[in-house]
Amino acid sequence: MRLIFRRAKAPKEERALAYVQWFTNPTDSQQDDASQLFKVDRKLNSEGQRIGEVIDMANIIQSCPLTPRYGKKADDLVSDVEIDGENCLEECNKFWVNCFHDQLAYQTLW
Fold this sequence. Notes:
Distance between the termini: 21 Å
Order of helices and strands: EEEEEHEH
Structural class: alpha+beta
Shape: globular
């Protein structure tokens, strides 16, 4: 979820909207044996641009804690860019979903 908003001059009963960017669905085949975390990739179109959509907030069940999939160090993620906590969601395309983050995540993903 990148942005939550309400249309300008929208009636009070109109629900808030959210702009979300899509990722692949975590599946059993994408689960890491050692960590038990799920691999997800950012969905990109044929031009390499992110796929996003505006949806009703009522369609959002929960947020998913994402951690970049990195090698021995975070700098291995993207060449020529120093990755840190401020820019990792913007610069990286491959992530782990932590199904142990909280009880709802565990019940939903595990």
